[in-house]
Amino acid sequence: MRRLRACLGAAAAVGLAAAGTTALVAGSASGATSALGNRWYAAAPYLMPLDNDPPDPAAIMDATGLKAFQLAFVLAPNGGGCSPTWGGTAAVSSDTAVQSVVNTIRAKGGDVSVSIGGYGGTKLGQVCSDAAATAAAYQQVITKYGLHAIDFDLEEPEYENTAAIKNEIGAAKILQQNNPGLYVSVTTAGTADGTGWFGKQMLLEAKSQGFTPNNFSIMPFDGGFNGAASQTGALTNFNQILQSTFGWDQATAYAHEGFSGMNGRSDTGEFFTQTDFQTVLDYATSHNMDRFTFWSLNRDRQCTPADNGGRTSGTCSSVAQNSWDFAKYSVKFAGATPPSSTPTPTPTPTPPGTGCKPAWSSTAVYTAGNEVSYNNHNWKAKWWTQNETPVASDWGVWQDEGSC
Predict the structure, then answer these.
(1) How confident is the model at residue 309 (pLDDT cuts 50, 70, 90)?
(2) Reading across the β-sheet that carries 377-381, which strands appear in turn?
(3) 117: left (phi over 0), alpha (psi -120 to 50) or beta
(4) Which residues contact 323 (CB under 8 A, 6 or more apart)?
(5) Across residues 98-114, what is the average pLDDT?
(6) How many Å apart are CA 292 and CA 45, to the nearest integer?
(7) Pick from 195, 250, 193, 240: nearest CA to 217
(8) Rounded to an integer, what distance in angstroms lies between the CA atom of residue 293 and that of residue 184?
(9) 1-47: pLDDT as tens digits
(10) In the chain, what percentage of residues exceed pLDDT 70?
């Protein structure tokens, strides 16, 4: 379900952390107005503009004061080839739908970054011949939308592919050189130790190529995390990894470090509430971190009462909240003051579910449409599977059909 910088000295990095930092200067082929300050691109939450019941960005801007959005995800075509598409299906070259979203945001004084990669689908780094070809594909996206910022979301299964990561990091370096002032973030999986073996290999690849983005962000969720304390612990450990990898001092490492969270219920059933977000926000700002974002605005609204807490959804958080509660933490990180809102609603008890289907078996073979029950929920298989535990995920084999 998840998705998610030039080298600075410590003193310059602290200056960058101030709200309203120097705006990027880049040309726009699509009518973009002047860029926002770097801090806004660092605070941009993820938004799927074509999937997961996209919310109205103008309404979010009015309700929260948010100005920047991280649009997701650019992938290789499902049918093959080295050209950018939205979600593997909608060619960037002929796009009008996402362009309309971009125009709406810019008309209200905001701007967008675009995220490439994410969890699932085929990434351009996997299919393009080399870093130059990969960069040329991404340059089409930058030119099409007049981008001032871009995010490389490098995670499974791509970051397990050495050649693909070499292409992606090489492409990021080329884009950084060819688009002066371009804000570049690199987002990867988080673990309790900071990041795992593949994440560390990605950092070593960046070091070997002499590439330093604005930040390296980790996603401390979907890995046995439990609230804010586990996340800030991972961020502390990741800081030490950045220090040891690049030879930075602690302050410089924090100035190149980012957090990319998941609001509400994660893919693996972890819960991150508004209080958790505030705690991590306090940690990020007190350590002068470069980025604070989350997956996703599509989920930044309360589920229907029957769904609260019971499943992970791409369109709601499964925690009690007002719409766009979590976006306001990004606004605070950017240095702005969100509008006041009404109190968080009291969650409604979940009503009894429907009857349970036959229990899931680890040894049985299931095909598309087969239904089972597991952990007091009914599940439907999307395709052939065996020994894959039912877990709610937009990219997984099982579709959650609700409690039973």
Answers:
(1) low
(2) 371-374, 377-381, 398-403
(3) left
(4) 63, 300, 301, 302
(5) 98
(6) 8
(7) 195
(8) 14
(9) 443 222 223 223 323 233 333 333 333 444 556 899 999 999 999 99
(10) 87
Predicted TM-score (pTM) of the model is 0.79
User: Which amino acid, 337?
Assistant: T
Instruction: Work out the number of other CB atoms within 10 angstroms of the CB of residue 71.
Output: 25
Which percentage of the chain shows pLDDT scores above 90? 72
Smallest CA-to-CA distance from 218 within 324, 290, 319 is with 290
Q: Which of 5, 4, 50, 54 is nearest to 298 (CA)?
A: 54
Provide the residue count of the chain. 404
How far out from the chain centre does Cα 364 lie?
Answer: 34
Q: Which residues contact 97 (CB under 8 A, 6 or more apart)?
A: 49, 50, 90
Tokens 């602690």 map to which residue? Answer: 250
CA torsion, points 239, 245, 246, 248, in degrees to nearest 10?
40
Question: For position 350, what pLDDT does the model report?
Answer: 40
Which two tokens mark 250? 């602690």
Backbone φ and ψ of 136, nearest 5°: -65, -35
Catalytic residues: 155
Average pLDDT over residues 392-404: 75
